[in-house]
Fold:
Amino acid sequence: MSRKFLQIIGASLLLSLSISSLYAQKKKLAQKVDSILHLMTLEEKIGQLNQYNDDQAATGPVTQDNDKIGQIKRGQVGSLLNCVGVARTRSWQKVAMQSRLKIPLLFGQDVIHGYKTTFPIPLGEASSWDLDAIESSARVAATEASASGLHWTFAPMVDIARDPRWGRVMEGAGEDPYLGSLIAAARVKGFQGNRLGDLNSMMACVKHFAAYGAAIGGRDYNSVDMSDRLLWEVYLPPFKAALDAGAVTFMNSFNDLNGVPATGNAYLQRTILKGKWGFKGFVVSDWGSIGEMINHGNVKDGYEAALSAITGGSDMDMESRNYKNSLAKLVADKKVPIALIDDAVRRILLKKFELGLFDDPFKYCNEEREKAALNNPEHTRIARSVAAKSIVLLKNENNILPLSKNTKTIAFIGPLVKALKQNKGFWDVEVPGVDSEHIVSQWQGLKNKIGATTNLLYAKGCEIEGDDKSGFGEAIAIAKQSDVVVLSIGERRDMTGEAKSRSNIGIPGVQEDLLKELLATGKPVVVLINTGRPLVFNYTADHATAILYTWWLGSEAGNAIADVLFGDVNPSAKLPMSFPVSVGQIPIYYSHFSTGRPATDDKNRIYNSSYNDLSIFPKYEFGYGKSYTSFEYSKLQLSKKKIKQTETIEVSVTIANTGKYDGDEVVQLYLRDRVGSIVRPVQELKDFKKTSLKAGESKVIQFKIDKQKLSFYNQLLNWVAEPGDFDIMIGSSSRDIRVKDSFELIN
Ligand code: NOJ
Structure:
């Protein structure tokens, strides 16, 4: 027998042993779950499906309940949210240990963009197009939060969002299902780490299932009406990707989808998620969403709401109390078979086992570990690097940036310069015993960076909101004394987030008026825009000398901004959402369908699908973002011009850094299916590579195109690749296509 053959036999034996030991482990866990289930009364089972808010924070309308302790002691609560820190979680767990069966509580929390160390808001972080960076930020968050007693984060939010009026755009990865899917998977891996049950791992919760991002008019919690094709092609892929990456819980959503509230939606939760996709974890409702089905007018009362939710596939009731109040009666009335309750309980108990809570309910409660994790300088370093990677350079007239470290006088102006908490963005965990303003302000960041010879002047100029211009004079005076002005403006951190829909998404107050006055001094003005969403800021876009879209960057905001302003980091971020010229263009996204009368910006346009009074193009397109250096694209090569369904095309393109600075470029590959049985988008992102190039360096970047990348959902919702011609477009943004070719798919 050859050595190679023996090696193959050995490897497959090992593989089958590890598969069978995994299977044996699973079986053992299932037996353990069943052994507990058999001991449980119906009331205790329903208790596991019940999640309450602790009173440390409120992330929804709170129900007064003075008997939480009593209910936990009676085994009527399975989980708490908004309860953080080793001391607090331990004390609640002790209460749970007084219950008859001592089933441990799960502690869940919105750890959305960091825990103690805060990171850029997710949409900002998505701008990095850097999956390792994104995974590392979730890793840090999980390391800190799990050391602080938490088992479960309500993240990632993977809702595709194409309407910047919707405040929750800040929490996702933008408009594109391909980019969104990769980021969803990276975040899940980051939160869950190597293995659930490791001390630095926490359960991810993929939300909001499903299509919450398509709320009509961009109004939070509003209805969603969409075709199955759009659902499958655009809105579901990030959920599937998160599941494939191992996500163990899902949260459903407040919206109805085509008339059926997601919380009671059996098509979504039973047919797709637990059926077709084989999801074995559990689904938690959104806050109160079971009861809110009564407001939807889809059910009459709490009894019907509980019936709809449990049959629809919601396993755990967050804060509505309808499971607690109605499930027992529903079982007695034979409306809900006990098997349905058992299935939900099993799913939840299994996770408690996998986390190791039955072996040690206090496993995640260790003060020493908490202290170490919350004071880890490596976390700060990662936060600074991720933040710098998330800053998008939108404009750089006369290459004013990067600023020289020898600039004599810089006027740093604006309501966000000295702000601390504003840099945090919407979601904020108050970590007990920790200074919540553990943040490097933008002022401090610049001070840390500049040398002794640079004079840094400050004026606030104005507030974020309101019409008070009394601070303009001082701002103008220091601008006149300076060589360059840096102006930090934007939104307050509570202006974009949950329930923060806005119809006017301009830069608030008199901030753009201040810019106008500063420009009138004749000094160059670099504008930093702090926000959670794409804003409309045509005046700034057209007149500022340079613009950095900084989003809300988290703990290390100041240092990261200084790194980019002075060129220690060359910006490489690209927009994950289209930025409209006007609210009138919304929804606007790059991968729109071709119409029968294609829109143009041609002056003589008539009888076509354009606006008469507005461009059809965004101010800044998906994938857009500048660098301090320049990149040239050439030599697009395809290994074949015709492929069969089973074949692959190797694509290569040469990228050259033709500027003065080292830099990173996100090379984007778009495809267009020229003729399809369903109308196809004018272009779809199908791959990208982020690559580093030294000044003067060239690299060959390679991609592969296979059947997967050419497929779509046809009218019968089958995933097919149809023979025909495809265009391939590679470039630096969705509009800045540098090289093109085409190929044919044959049968
Ligand atoms: C409601 C939000 O929609 C959801 O995303 C969040 O996780 C819960 N509140 C809990 O805070």
Observations:
- The chain has 22 helices and 26 strands.
- The CA atoms of residues 249 and 335 lie 26 Å apart.
